[in-house]
Amino acid sequence: MATTSKPKIPEPAFDPDAFRDFIATVDENGKRNWIHPKKPSGRFYRWRTIVSVVLLALLFIGPFLRYKGEPFLLFNILERKFIVFGITFWPQDFHLFVLAMITFFVFIVLFTVIFGRVWCGWACPQTIFMEMVFRKIEYWIEGDGNQQRKLDLAPWNGDKILKRGAKWLIFAAIAFLIGNLVMAYMIGTDELSKIVTESPGANWGKFTFVMIFSGIFFFVFTYFREQACIAVCPYGRLQGVLLGKDSIVVAYDWLRGEPRGKLKKQKAAEAAGEPHGDCIDCKMCVAVCPTGIDIRNGTQLECVNCTACIDACDSVMDKIGKPRGLVRYDSYNGIENKTPFRFTTRIIAYMVVLAALLGVLGFSLGGRTDVETTILRTPGMLYQTTDEGYISNLYNVQVINKTTEEFTVTLKLVEPASGRLKEVGQDLFVPSREIAKGAFFVEIPPDDLNGNKNKITVQVWSGDKLLDEVRTNFLGPIK
Ligand code: SF4
Ligand code: SF4
C-alpha cells in the first residue's frame, strides 16, 4: 500500500522588508511595547547634553526678559497679543504673522531637505525634556534599561512602590513647572505670579489652564513618550516627503557593515578571505534607541535623529578595533555613491523661495508703523448741513499705539484745505500698547465737493510729531 506523506509547508522566506509591517512600540496583539533604552554615552550625547542645558536655560529665562518694562516674548493667544523680541504684534499685524509663519515653514522644509531631522534630535522641546530631563531622572531612580524592564515585571513590593512613587512625584513636579512656564509665555510673569501667590479661587480660570497644561505634560512624559514623535508630531510625519537621497541623516553604512554577523563569524570570514562586513550584529544601536528601531533597516519615520545609535556603534567599533562611523551622519548618496553634499535643483528652488519670502517679510516689517489709525464714517449716518452751510460728516477714529510710550493725539484735516475738523470731546489719550477710540466731524464748503464721493486726508499728530496720515471718504450731496 502506497503511503502518502503530508505536503511540506515551505519555510517562510526571509523578508528584509518585514520591519515595515509593524512598529517597535506595539506588539502583535496591538499592545504597547514599552521601550526601555539603554543609557546612551559618547561624544554626541555629551554635546547634546550641553546644547540641552543652554536651550533649557534660555527657555526658562525667556518669560522673565523685559524690554522697556514689557515682556521680551509673549504669546497671549487668549487676548491675541503677541510680543516677539520686544515688538508688539496686534491682530492688525496678522498678515505679518502669516507671512512669518510661511517663511518659517519654508525654512523648516529647506533645513530638513539638507539636514534631515537635526531639529528633532538637538532642539525639539519634546526630545530635550524627554531624553535630557525625564529619562535622566528615570535612569537615576530606576537604573539602566534592563533594570527598568525588571522593575516593570516585578510585583508591587516596597522597592517598586518607592521607586515608582518617587519617580512620578518628581515627574509631576517638573510637569507642573513646565505648565507654569507655558502660562508665563502666554500671560506674562506678572499675571502668573498672581496665580502663584493668590488663592486658586481668585484666578480660577488661569489656574485651571496651569493644571490642564501640567496634566498634559505629566501624561506625555510619563506615559505617551516616544508616541508623541511617532504618532502625533506632524513634522515627523512629513519626513517621507521632505527627505531626499542627499539629505543628511543618521544612517547605517550598509556597504561597510554588510554582510553582518557575530564577531567570531566575522573574524573567521576575515581569516578565510571571505566577504564580511564590520557590523558584528551586537544590536547595541537598537538597545539605546528611544523609539526602539533598528537603524540598520534604513531611514525610518520613527527615527528622531537623536544620535544615540552613533555613540553606541562608535564605542563598539573602538572595542573591536575598527574605524568609527559605521553609523554616522551621512546621506543615501554619500554612502551609496560616496558623493559629497551638493546643492540639488530642489534645494536651490527652496532657497530662492526662502530668499524671496525673507525679502518680503523684511520689507513688511520695515514698513510697519508704531501707530495705526483707522478712520471710518459712522455707520448709518448721512451728511448734514450746518447752520453756516457746510456739509458735515461724522467719523469714528481708532488709534492703536504699538509702542511702550503713551501719548495724546491731535487730528488735523489737511485736504481739502477749505474744510475743518472738529473733535467730539477732548484730544485722544492713547496709553502704551493700547487702543483709543473717539469721534469727530469734518465740515467742508459745498462748493469744494465733487458730488457724493470725495476723498479727504486726516493727519494724526502727537505734539509736533506726525504719527500717521489717513485718507478716507466724505459723503456729499449728489450734483
Ligand atoms: S552597534 Fe554597530 S556593530 Fe552593533 S549591531 Fe549596531 S551597527 Fe552593528
Ligand atoms: S535610530 Fe538612532 S538616531 Fe534614530 S532614534 Fe534610534 S537611536 Fe536615535
Low-confidence stretches: none
Characterize the quaternary organization of these chains.
single chain
Q: What class would the helix/strand composition place it in? A: alpha+beta
Overall spatial form: elongated
From the N-terminal CA to the C-terminal CA, the straight-line distance is 120 Å
pLDDT average, as an integer?
A: 89
Largest sheet: 5 strands, antiparallel
What is the number of helical segments per DSSP (H or I, 4+ residues)? 17
How many strand units?
16
Bound molecules: iron/sulfur cluster
Helicity range of the residues? 40-55%
**Domain module count:** 2
What is shown here, in short?
By secondary structure, the chain is of the alpha+beta class.
Characteristics:
479 residues; alpha+beta; Immunoglobulin-like; 2 domains; four-stranded antiparallel β-sheet; 43% helix
Characterize the structure shown.
- The strands form five sheets. Strands 8, 9, 10, 12 and 14 form a five-stranded antiparallel beta sheet that branches.
- This protein has helices spanning 43-61, 94-115, 118-122, 125-142, 145-153, 158-187, 189-197, 204-224, 227-232, 234-237, 239-242, 254-257, 263-272, 284-287, 308-320, 332-336, 345-366; strands at 66-67, 70-71, 73-76, 81-84, 87-89, 249-252, 327-330, 371-377, 384-385, 391-401, 407-415, 420-423, 428-430, 435-444, 453-462, 465-475.
- The chain has two domains: 21-64 and 116-337, no CATH class; 371-475, Immunoglobulin-like (Sandwich), CATH 2.60.40.10.
- The mean pLDDT is 89.
- The chain is an alpha+beta fold.
- It contains 17 helices and 16 strands.
- α2 (94-115) packs antiparallel against α17 and α4 packs antiparallel against α6.
- 24% of the residues are buried.
- Residues 252, 257, 279-285, 296, 312-313, 316, 326-327 line the site of one iron/sulfur cluster (SF4).
